[in-house]
Design a protein that fits this description.
Helix content is 43%, strand content 12%. By secondary structure, it is an alpha/beta fold. Strand 11, helix 8 and strand 12 form a beta-alpha-beta unit. Helix 2 packs across helix 5, helix 4 runs antiparallel to helix 5 and helix 5 packs parallel to helix 9.
Length: 308
């Protein structure tokens, strides 16, 4: 065989081999696994655990409560095609019950403590100004992550699921889980300490979304059905006065999001000090789940009699 021909053939073969490998690598790097979630706390946990390995799908609009958000058909299809689908459990995101999500890739992150779910006896329906549609706070309390021990269980379930589906990522995921659990344990310890300084007096909450937080940190919370941007009219103030009259020791009022300045002044004239304790169910405008929870703790610490 002609030596020059043989050399040319080998060279072409090598070039084609390199090109095929490069193309294969590009395709592989372009196709990252996807993990779909129904609320921001799960998105945060998944982001911490998976790192750059996976893409997290969380499509709820920033101005809606994800618990009552209804995804479009296209968004549901996108979730159905994800490698993992993380549900919160406790009847959170009720649309998921009828969305035909694939069983083999769907994970209920709170299944390990479902026997500890809190049942809300009376179903109260109302609307939020931003959301418009009526929804109910009856049935099962679903802000499970506000008890940071339960949040740790949810994070552990997520890590286990990722490790099972992607064994080559298991070691990295478990290392990330250890760091996340350390942060959640710190949140739990500090929250318990700060709340204990409030002399166990009852507090009023604008919204019935603190059931697990109340139980975990031994609080007594009296819930209204207020939105942070609603008008505090005669009826709303009358409801608040009834709660105050029935609970003369109450001094603090908790909002889930920053209220209007006029609300702060109005409640101050009624002898109430306001504080924001966000459940962080949706992605915050700045910071992340951890920074929001630390801000909650700092706000509560300022209420402590030791700092007054």
């Amino acid at each position: 065989m002609n030596t020059r021909f043989l050399l040319a053939t080998c060279t072409l073969s090598f070039l084609f081999s390199c090109g095929a490998k490069r193309k294969s690598t590009e395709i592989e790097s372009a196709h990252k696994p996807t993990i779909a979630v129904v609320n921001y706390p799960l998105a945060y946990f998944a982001e911490r655990l998976a790192g750059e390995f996976a893409t997290i799908i969380f499509d709820a609009p920033s101005d809606l409560d994800p618990a009552f958000w209804e995804p479009t058909d296209e968004q549901i299809v996108r979730m159905q095609q994800a490698d993992l689908i993380l549900l919160n459990g406790a009847n959170y995101a009720q649309w998921a019950a009828t969305a035909s999500l694939p069983f083999e890739s769907t994970v209920d992150t709170s299944s390990s403590f479902e026997k500890s779910f809190i049942t809300i006896e009376s179903a109260i329906k109302h609307t939020h100004l931003k959301e418009g549609a009526e929804h109910s706070h009856g049935g099962t309390a679903f802000t499970t992550w506000m008890d940071f021990r339960q949040a740790g269980m949810q994070a552990t379930t997520i890590a286990t699921a990722i490790g099972a589906d992607f064994p080559d990522q298991k070691d990295a995921v478990m290392k990330n889980l250890a760091a996340l659990l350390t942060d959640l344990k710190e949140l739990h310890t500090v929250t318990a300490k700060v709340v204990s300084n409030l002399n166990h007096a009852p507090v009023i909450a604008s919204h019935p979304s603190y059931q697990y937080w109340e139980r975990a940190y031994r609080l007594e919370i009296l819930s209204l059905l207020w939105d942070s941007e609603m008008e505090l009219g005669t009826e709303a103030i009358a409801d608040l006065k009834k709660v105050q009259e029935a609970n003369p020791g109450v001094k603090y009022f908790i909002w889930d999001s920053e209220p209007l300045p006029a609300h702060l002044e109005k409640l101050k004239t009624m002898g109430l000090t306001c504080v924001v304790v966000s459940s962080c169910s949706n992605r915050p405008a700045s910071g992340d789940f951890l920074s929001v929870m630390r801000a909650n703790i700092e706000a509560l610490a300022k209420l402590s009699p030791e700092r007054s």
